[in-house]
Amino acid sequence: MAMVHTGGPDGVRLHVQRLGPGRAGPGGSGAAPTAVLLHGLLTDSLASYYFTVGPGLAAAGIDVVMYDQRGHGRSERPARGYRLDTFVGDLERLLDRLGIHGPVHLVGNCFGGTVAFQYAVRHPERVAGLSLIESEPATPAWAAKLDRMLGDTETQLSEHEADALAWIDAHRGRHTARLARSAARLARTTTIGRDIPSSAVLDEDRIRAVSGPVLALYGADSDMAAQAPWLESLLPGCRTVIVPGHEHSVLVEVPALVLDHVLGWIHDPGRAASGSGSRRVEAAP
């Protein structure tokens, strides 16, 4: 566990945990592939991976890098600077500070997947493969959705924060209430609600430029599942997995299934070239 100073315009420090071999050969490559795990917004942190697929990936010989994105978990929380490109810049500088220069596997949950995809657009030579969990590229529709979601969150918290947190504490438990309080502070004390929706987005031509292997997992009952055929139409190297009976929280609800697919993708990302297309699987009991 470490705090890594990324440098850059605001010099934010990021909380990082690394599991597994941690071996790097010349140029940042080595015997162990490296997977960088990126979490989602507001209530999320690297803990969502630490208690799901992170240890399993490390046990399989993967060099696992997990970090709290700016404003989240134990990382620093600047008052401003939350556009998507800033999160991508954090990832760039973090990998440089860790001495990881070879291609990495990026695993992103929700917003973390959007950051990962944007990084792949910017640095295709540094990405061995993408695993997107309930995620999508940054498009105008994505920005509009985030604007509604973050706007609703900020409004509800500003008007009913105490009541909402008390209800969560009583009905969802103390741990969930702590996460909600942290999310409330992030929304209330920073510009994240304005910055993310105003981020630069991608058109379909730039999305098509991501030629590497992409795995996308969705809960069948999530509105995100509608992304599957669209992604497949744009990305020849994309394979989608639809998990019946689940919504947005597939990472937490069926971690063994997610681990199986992500680990298989890391070990054999080239199978996308010969077997791309949507695939429906049964969730683990």
What does it look like?
The structure is a single chain. By secondary structure, the protein is α/β, with parallel strands linked by helices. It folds into 2 domains: 2-136 and 201-280, Alpha/Beta hydrolase fold, catalytic domain (Rossmann fold); 142-195. The protein has helices spanning 47-50, 54-59, 84-97, 111-122, 140-172, 174-189, 192-195, 204-208, 227-234, 250-253, 255-267, 271-275, and strands spanning 2-5, 13-19, 34-38, 63-67, 104-109, 127-133, 214-219, 238-243, 277-280. The protein has a 9-stranded mixed beta sheet with strand order 1-2-4-3-5-6-7-8-9, with helices on both faces. Strand 5 (104-109), helix 4 and strand 6 (127-133) form a beta-alpha-beta unit. Helix 5 (140-172) crosses helix 6 (174-189). It is globular. Residues 24-29 and 272-276 have low confidence and may be disordered. Keywords: Hydrolase. This is Alpha/beta fold hydrolase. InterPro entries: AB_hydrolase_1 (IPR000073), AB_hydrolase_fold (IPR029058), Carboxylesterase_BioH (IPR050228).
